[in-house]
Amino acid sequence: MASRAVTIQDVARRAGVSTQTVSNVLNNPERVRPATARKVHAAVDALGYRAHAAARRLRTRRSDTIGLRLAPLPAGISGTILDVFLHEVTVRAAELGLRILLYTAADREEEIIRLRELVASGDVDGVILTDTQAGDPRPAWLTEQQVPYVCFGRPWGEEEAATHPWVDVDGAAGTRAAAEHLIASGARRVGFLGWPDSAGQGASRCAGWRAAVVERGLVDEAGADDLVAACPDRVADAMQAAAELLARHPDIDGLVCASDSLAFGALLAGGGGVGVVGFDNTPVARAVGLSSVDQRIDLVAQAVLDLLVQDGRITAGGAARRIITPELRVRRAVIQDPSLMTANGESRGDALA
């Protein structure tokens, strides 16, 4: 005979409290004294009680669900970052008893339409926005509708004026660490391969490299621009841009790249003895032994939920913000100029990692 399911009354009897107190601990913990909550949680753990989620949601009129847009399929190597973020935030949300609901939208305007449907139907209590930019209409709409939300990505150009919570990675710190690693490894002419945007994330990553090479005396401010190449975030474009930069400056012995897509293209461009460091620490970087900056997406996901969830409930987080410091993962580059290889394929000299 199957054993009887544990009920909320069983938990109340074991903890020596009322069923309403147990309900408050599980659904509205802010109403209960910490000592009482500890007794109830101990009884829950001892009895293996599992609240009926559907019934709880009907009582509280909360879905315990966070909406997150499923981004279009990425075109480049570094496009997997949002996939990693999705995994990390889903795992951490589940640990809090929350769910992630994925939705699709072709652009920001269509996303607002989709969010309007999800909020009106009660399917989501909060939202995580990605790919935010200055003038983005989504934060303003969510604020007006009083829907709790957090952005993964800062509102470039509006950071100080922003009234909503956001989490971002310090890209400048990452590229600075990459450049300093190359310099410490012996590089004396370190270039930068980035994107053709003059503001936002691309500019931030370029600024980190620039600060390192100027402060270390490798180049002055005026000369730094000549060591920068820019192209779309595609391997083929990076191959061409890197080849042209190396042709102009054959003394370059290190390259910091704004993404792993660009770094992989730079490696394929040849340039034996040129140390290459990417950004994003993608599976490709790990597979080919490419040094790369790890954004620490696990910490990003945790910070996002810290701002969105308080005492187990999805709630508005005000204008709070968190900036995550990335970490450089050092490896040995495996693609070198053919002239540096022996007849049996072994290296005559290691390229800088």
Automatic annotation (TrEMBL):
It comes from Actinomyces ruminicola. GO terms for molecular function: DNA-binding transcription factor activity; transcription cis-regulatory region binding. Pfam families: LacI, Peripla_BP_1. Keywords: DNA-binding, Transcription, Transcription regulation. Residues 6-60 form the HTH lacI-type domain. This is DNA-binding transcriptional regulator, LacI/PurR family. The keyword Cytoplasm does not apply.
